From TrEMBL, chain A:
Name of this protein: Putative Zn-dependent peptidase
InterPro entries associated with the record: Metalloenz_LuxS/M16, Pept_M16_N, Peptidase_M16, Peptidase_M16_C
PANTHER family per record: NARDILYSIN, PROTEIN YHJJ
Gene Ontology biological-process annotations: proteolysis
Lineage: Bacteria, Pseudomonadati, Bacteroidota, Flavobacteriia, Flavobacteriales
Family: Belongs to the peptidase M16 family.
GO molecular function: metal ion binding; metallopeptidase activity
Automatic annotation (TrEMBL), chain B:
Family annotation (InterPro entries): Metalloenz_LuxS/M16, MPP/UQCRC_Complex, Pept_M16_N, Peptidase_M16_C
Signal sequence annotation: 1-20
Domain Peptidase M16 C-terminal: 199-377
Organism name: Tenacibaculum lutimaris
Full protein name: Putative Zn-dependent peptidase
UniProt lineage: Bacteria, Pseudomonadati, Bacteroidota, Flavobacteriia, Flavobacteriales
Pfam families in alphabetical order: Peptidase_M16, Peptidase_M16_C
Length: 438, 684
């Protein structure tokens, strides 16, 4: 067994250049400014239609958090030609499936149908954009539904409030300080007029990217897209200017409480740049180095060898305007939270001082190669990636070329980026404690 | 490859596809149904019993392999968790490769390798697959069980138990299984701190040596492979995996309760209740009514267009999602029907009613032809969308092997779905959705939920703890925090309405309010003055009907012109309530308990024949309950205060609801005057 492993290892060095699949696509603009991306894959009779709007929780008024997500719910309530309550029925009775989701940066809607229903998918998305019906009745029902969503996903879940608390402490000015689900009292206070104004401002073709992916005929799809979407009037240009955060120059501390936990957690959070930057990708590699897999530094040290932690990890929360880099651990037994921070810090200092080994570097490259192949494994996933790269990064072809950025990152860069962002005077240290400790 | 044309999904939209202007008021019709191809799987069997299924697909340069050990289920008893611990220990190195090297190799290849008590899975790029499958085979055949690793896994498992102790979802799922299957069933038993502490390293080794065998196992390989090379690879890697003798099993076959009952599990930290109506079903993949059961469940609660979702979420807004599910199982009566939702505390009782209503409706009334048609379309669409994924083709082949199904089972699948009738649906609903013999399992916050549940529910409520042991009904009030007394509650109340200083300046009050009784307007004018004078005048359409007057020492009641002097005990009572903000008199009462009212906690002060409720958070008075002697004995007369608004900087309730037997009066305050409009004559 052992012998075989060694012979194969030498073969690896040759294997790396093998070319992974390329995602072919075509993109263009309609006259009203709507961006269109087509990706044809006729290997299965399935087609995805999706629209990504460049609007998310960060576009909300500070006293109306949760609006963007709430709005996503409202846009299933019906349109001029789709009666209230019919949306889901039309989708499922035509063999399709659909959903939507909202982040701080964007909102995404999609349908997946057997390929003979391409036109239906386009019709529904164009209806949603052209003339949704936003009424008090829908607002009232969805108000309750969203509250239940929050209770289900946040209030009743262990460790679910940690991100909210990290963001609240890390951002003082930028709207990333709030959560996507928002404050319920803000939603209660929102008026119908405000919802209508939100729609008018952000749900316009010049703020949207339409993706059609899967089994279709290009010429026919273009004709249908033009027929359904081009008549939709262009909206005003959207001007975005978000306040800039002051740099963090001194380590600061916070506490947060969770009634659903018994075992506390410790987090160290650092402010990092936009996900569009090269540095953000270097930080992705650093998190994988620290916590991706059983041989990763933090797992091996804290969980396995020293048995100090139940769990340890790194999260690179990448967002459009800023990133937040979070190191965390849950103690095992009587180990103190401070002792975990100390151990984690040691590893960060090593990263800042020494180059990671050639072997570890190769391991990172292999992992990212593997992620890249798997990222494009489903047509629905490709549709989402195309939209995201276009809307948030402004470069659709990153779906093919982002891997080249990762490949070009050097060991020296990893060290430099760790030195640039992961210093103790640039961070928040937050204790996340059981409510009973309050 | 076999081609199937779906005739169902759509009839053709022939003639009018020309390039005329689109009419967006008409929902587009589907085009001709697409052709689908069922993926092909290759199969072979090794002499040790391992069955191998391969699906070749070159779209991406990757391969995945999954091993399933399909032994009959068995009981672990007082060592429940032993198989899980065994599974967790697998992959921590082998007798050939130390743990760190093993993990390092897996990570270096960018691969995923995982082991569990009943199998293992790997995924990697094509170029590394040979080595990665080799690592998996090594882990399967040659695990290393050391005391050191064992201790680690035990410690981590114990902490893991602790970390989910307060999770409402985790407790609900544990207790649901324990109650429905019984603790003496492999699906009903669960891990506890005690059962984990009972496990020794030797138990883990025994578990591996007994059950981790190729006899009942399937290895499924999907992706960018050359089947004949892969066959050789598998033979080389797995031929020497030794088969064993799997012991026969015995456990109780679960049964349903005779009549529906509620099982309540108290979780004081819950903000939502997990509500589930559950019963056992005896249903296996391929049964004659299998398809009808699937469709019936789909119509009842299969998704975002099903009845439960439309009712509990879209209509009532009780929940983020309400669903039902029916699971088939190879073992006798080991499948489950479950309809449920996570709902906010205050609507728990109503959610139970609505879920049961929907279950009964689908049992006692036929579904509509349109519902059946749509449901079939949903299943067929789902089939079409997924059937060409290589993993689905592999799964189909695995099911055919595991369940001994005919080889054309999935080719006939759409046909079978299509032939289900309205009667079939109802029969399946009656047979499998046992609203009449179900456990309604509610995991939630008793103090918020139980009062209403007892009121609305026709079922007996049995109480269980978080480990499914029978227990008592939880206390319905909360302990009073240290330092809080009747006096401090009243001080907080006075502060909340505006502060002692402002109140001290109030010498008199006039409160005018209105209510409707049987369509007629009722006016009420109440006057209060210091030190303790009061008068109440009730009139209807300008005619005074009732007057109650107290001048500080004596008083009378006048009804329709009939005057009656107050008796001694009446005088005692009114003395305490006559002054403006007479609440300060309640300081001499006793702080009895904390009780939730509509989801908000309130302090309850007992004073004489009264209980007075002050909201814990806001400090405001929310309710008073007076006990009086009625013709049929003692009656409770509640008054509820809400809609507090400021008048001259002091907060007054502007809505007062009074209940007297079956009669409810809702008073809306129209005007409040402070230090004006009152003279001594008013109290004569």
């Amino acid at each position: 067994m052992r012998k075989r492993v060694i012979t194969l290892a030498s073969a690896l060095l040759v294997g790396l250049s093998a070319n992974a699949q390329k995602v072919e696509f075509e993109e263009y603009n309609l006259n009203n400014g709507m961006h269109v991306i087509l990706h044809q894959d006729n290997s299965a009779p399935v087609v995805t239609t999706s629209v990504m709007y460049h609007v998310g929780a960060k576009d909300e008024q500070p006293n109306r958090t949760g609006m963007a997500h709430f709005f996503e719910h409202l846009l299933f309530e019906g349109t001029k030609n789709i009666k209230k309550g019919e949306w889901f029925k039309i989708v499922s009775s035509n063999g399709g499936t659909n959903n939507a989701n909202t982040t701080d940066d964007r909102t995404y809607y999609y349908e997946v149908f057997p390929s003979n229903n391409l036109e239906l998918g386009l019709w529904m998305e164009s209806e949603r954009l052209l003339h949704p019906i936003i009424g008090q009745e829908g607002v009232d029902t969805q108000n309750e539904v969203v509250k239940e969503e929050k209770r289900l996903r946040v209030d009743n879940q262990p460790y679910s409030r940690f991100l909210e608390n990290v963001k609240k402490n890390m951002f003082k000015k930028h709207p990333y300080k709030g959560t996507t689900i928002g404050k319920m009292e803000h939603l209660d206070a929102a008026t119908l007029e405000e919802f209508l104004a939100f729609n008018k401002k952000y749900y316009v073709p010049n703020n949207a990217t339409l993706v059609v992916a899967g089994d279709f005929e290009v010429k026919e799809a273009k004709r249908l897209i033009k027929s359904y979407f081009e008549p939709i009037p262009r909206g005003k240009d959207i001007v975005r200017s978000f306040p800039k955060e002051d740099p963090i120059t001194k380590e600061f501390f916070a506490k947060a409480y969770d009634p659903n936990i018994q075992i506390p957690a410790i987090m160290a959070a650092y402010r990092t740049p936009s996900m569009k930057t090269r540095d953000a990708r270097v930080l992705d590699m650093i998190s994988t180095y620290l916590s991706g897999g059983k041989s990763s530094v933090l797992y091996k040290k804290l969980v396995d060898t020293k048995k100090m932690a139940l769990q340890a990890g790194a999260i690179n929360l990448s967002q459009e305007d800023y990133g937040t880099y979070i190191l965390f651990a849950l103690p095992l037994g009587d180990n103190s939270l401070q002792s975990l921070v100390k151990e984690i810090d040691e590893e960060v200092v090593k990263l800042q001082t020494n180059l990671i080994s050639e072997k570890n570097y190769q391991k990172l490259q292999n992992k990212f190669e593997n992620n890249f192949v798997n990222a494009n494994s489903s047509v629905e996933g490709i549709a989402n990636s195309l939209a995201r790269y276009n809307v948030l990064y402004g470069d659709t072809n990153l779906i093919n070329t982002e891997i080249d950025i990762y490949r070009s990152i050097t060991r020296e860069e990893i060290r430099e980026v760790a030195k640039k962002y992961l210093n103790t005077n640039q961070r928040l240290v937050m204790e996340y404690l059981p409510e009973s400790k309050k | 490859m076999k081609k199937i044309i779906i005739a169902v999904l759509a009839v053709v939209s022939m003639s009018f596809t020309v390039n005329a202007q689109i009419d967006r008021s008409v929902q587009p019709k589907p085009g001709p149904a697409p052709q689908i191809k069922l993926g092909k799987a290759e199969k072979f069997k090794l002499s040790n019993g391992l069955q191998v299924i391969m699906v070749e697909n070159h779209k991406l340069p990757r391969v995945s392999a999954s091993l399933t050990i399909d032994n009959p289920i068995y009981l672990e008893g007082d060592k429940t968790g032993v198989s899980q611990v065994m599974g967790d220990m697998l992959g921590n190195g082998t007798t050939n490769l130390p743990k760190d090297e093993f993990n390092e190799r897996v990570d270096f290849l960018g691969a995923n390798v995982s082991f569990r008590s009943n199998g293992a899975s790997v995924r990697s790029l094509t170029k590394y697959f040979e080595e990665v499958l080799g690592l998996m085979a090594d882990g399967v055949k040659n695990p290393k069980f050391t005391q050191e690793e064992f201790d680690k896994v035990i410690e981590r498992t114990l902490e893991g138990i602790k970390s989910s102790e307060k999770s409402v979802e985790a407790v609900a799922s544990r207790v649901e299984n324990a109650l429905v299957y019984g603790k003496n069933h492999p699906y009903g038993e669960f891990i506890t701190k005690e059962s984990i502490k009972n496990i020794a390293l030797q138990d883990v080794k025994n578990n591996y040596n007994t059950y981790y065998k190729p006899n009942n196992s399937y290895l499924v390989i999907v992706g960018d492979i050359n089947p004949s090379e892969t066959k050789t690879l598998v033979k080389n890697l797995f031929n020497d995996w030794k088969k064993g003798a799997i012991p026969p099993v015995s456990y109780n076959v679960p049964t349903n309760v005779n009549t529906t009952e509620i099982n309540f599990i108290n979780m004081p930290n819950a903000v939502q209740s997990q509500v589930a109506v559950i019963n056992i079903v005896d249903l296996t993949l391929g049964d004659k009514d299998y398809y009808a059961a699937l469709l019936a469940n789909n119509i009842l609660g299969g998704g975002g267009t099903a009845r439960l979702f439309m009712n509990l979420r879209e209509d009532k807004g009780y929940t983020y999602g309400a669903y039902s599910s029916i699971s088939q199982n190879k073992n006798k009566s080991a499948g489950i029907f479950r309809a449920g939702a996570a709902v906010r505390n205050m609507v728990t009782d109503s959610a139970v009613v609505e879920i049961q209503k929907e279950i009964n409706k689908i049992r006692y009334q036929k579904v509509t032809p349109e519902e059946l048609k749509n449901s079939k379309a949903e299943y067929i669409g789902n089939f079409v969308r997924n059937v060409q994924k290589p993993s689905v083709a592999a799964n189909f082949a695995l099911n055919i092997a595991r369940y001994n199904l005919p080889s054309n089972f999935y080719e006939k699948y759409l046909e079978n779905i299509n032939s289900v009738t309205l009667d079939d649906i109802q029969n399946a609903a009656i047979k499998y959705f046992r609203g009449d013999k179900a456990r309604v399992i509610i995991t939630g916050k008793g103090i918020d939920v139980l009062k209403n549940l007892e009121k609305t529910s026709e079922y007996k409520i049995n109480y269980f703890d978080a480990y499914a042991n029978p227990t008592e009904k939880p206390a319905m009030s909360l302990p009073i925090p240290k330092g809080v007394t009747a006096s401090s509650v009243i001080d907080d109340y006075l502060k909340a309405v505006g502060g002692k200083d402002k109140i001290a300046n109030v010498n008199s009050l006039v409160t005018s309010s209105e209510a409707k009784i049987q369509g007629m307007q009722l006016s009420l004018v109440q006057k209060n003055a210091t030190p303790n004078k009061s008068s109440v005048t009730v009139s209807m359409m300008g005619n005074v009907m009732q007057k109650i007057v107290f001048d500080g020492t004596k008083g009378y009641q006048e009804v329709n012109g009939q005057k009656k002097e107050m008796a001694k005990d009446e005088l005692e009572e009114i003395k305490n309530t006559a002054a403006p903000f007479a609440d300060k008199n309640y300081k001499t009462g006793s702080l009895d308990r904390i009780e939730p009212i509509d989801g908000n906690n309130a302090y309850v002060i007992k004073h004489g024949k009264k209980e007075v409720f002050y909201d814990v958070k806001s400090g405001l008075k929310v309710k008073e309950v007076k006990t009086a002697q009625g013709p049929q004995g003692e009656v409770k007369i509640p008054m509820v205060f809400s809609d507090y608004k400021e008048v001259n900087g002091i907060k007054f309730p502007h809505k007062i609801i009074q209940k007297n037997g079956p009669m409810t009066l809702e008073f809306i305050v129209k005007e409040i005057k402070i230090n004006e409009g009152v003279s001594d004559a008013d109290f004569e």
